[in-house]
Design a protein that fits this description.
α1 packs parallel to α2. The relative contact order is 0.17. The radius of gyration is 16 Å and the shape is globular. It is built from four helices and 14 strands. By secondary structure, it is of the alpha+beta class. The strands form three sheets. Strands 5-6-4-1-14-13 form a six-stranded mixed β-sheet. A six-stranded mixed β-sheet has the order 7-8-9-10-12-11, covered by helices on one side. Helices cover 18% and strands 42% of the residues. It has one domain: Deoxyribonuclease I, Chain A (4-Layer Sandwich), CATH 3.60.10.10.
Length: 239
């Protein structure tokens, strides 16, 4: 059996904010806190990639973790861009970024990376869904379309789903195509947003082809002082 530790985390572009104003850079502390958890796979959302080399957050995270990484930019602006980034201890066989934007004003993507694990492969889908329900439903169907046709192929579908009403979770239960690791926790322990006082279970790890051995939303210090989201950590066994 192979044990895989996975963390999904919305990094909020590496800053802590109050209202609309950035008040503190948290990237250094957040990444070193993640490194202490020693994940095999880290899937981050809202990772900033600036024009200047010292503002390219993927390279800093890779330097701390020592993992390979792939980056899927979604939103572009004058100073740079931001998107999803996947970091893995195992080799990345291939990857592509699928545009699932449903609005000009909300650029969204699914970063699909295939990881080599021994003689097999793990498919990872790293995403950050839209703020409106209709757009999220369409993005969910696009995520399902991206699943490998072989149902035995291991899949991780992780990220910030913005599904505060739980409609996507209900869809997942009905179809049985993916299992939300957080279903193994009481509802009150699934909440990951806002970090200082979690009320909503927005961040999730869906999977298939694994056996779940543990799941937790990382709470308390230092997590409540870092991003506006809390990370979700799972341990999974590959058969």
């Amino acid at each position: 059996m192979t044990l895989v530790r996975v963390i999904t985390y919305n990094l909020h572009k590496g800053v802590r904010s109050r209202g609309l104003r950035a008040v503190e850079t948290i990237l250094h502390d957040a990444v070193h806190a993640i490194a202490e958890r020693n994940p095999d796979v880290l899937l981050c959302q809202e990772v900033y990639h600036g024009i200047d080399a010292d503002l390219q957050q993927c390279h800093f995270i890779t330097g701390v973790l020592g993992h390979q990484h792939v980056f899927g930019p979604n939103a572009f602006y004058r100073s740079g861009c931001h998107g999803n980034a996947t970091f893995a201890r195992m080799p990345v066989a291939r990857h592509h970024n699928r545009d699932v934007s449903e609005s000009f004003f909300e650029r969204r993507g699914i970063l699909h990376a295939t990881l080599r694990d021994g003689d097999g492969e793990i498919e990872t889908l790293n995403t950050h869904f839209s703020l409106t329900g209709r757009q999220r439903r369409r993005q969910w169907f696009k995520l399902i379309e991206a699943l490998p046709t072989d149902p035995s192929r291991p899949v991780l579908a992780c990220g910030d789903f913005n599904d505060w009403a739980g409609s996507l979770d209900r869809q997942a239960r009905r179809t049985g195509l993916l299992h939300n690791a957080l279903w193994d926790l009481p509802p009150g322990e699934r909440r990951s947003f806002p970090a200082h006082r979690p009320l909503l279970a927005l961040d999730r790890v869906y999977f298939r082809g694994f056996r779940l051995t543990s799941v937790a939303v990382l709470r308390g210090d230092p997590w409540r002082r870092l991003s506006d989201h809390l990370p979700v950590e799972v341990e999974l066994e590959l058969p």
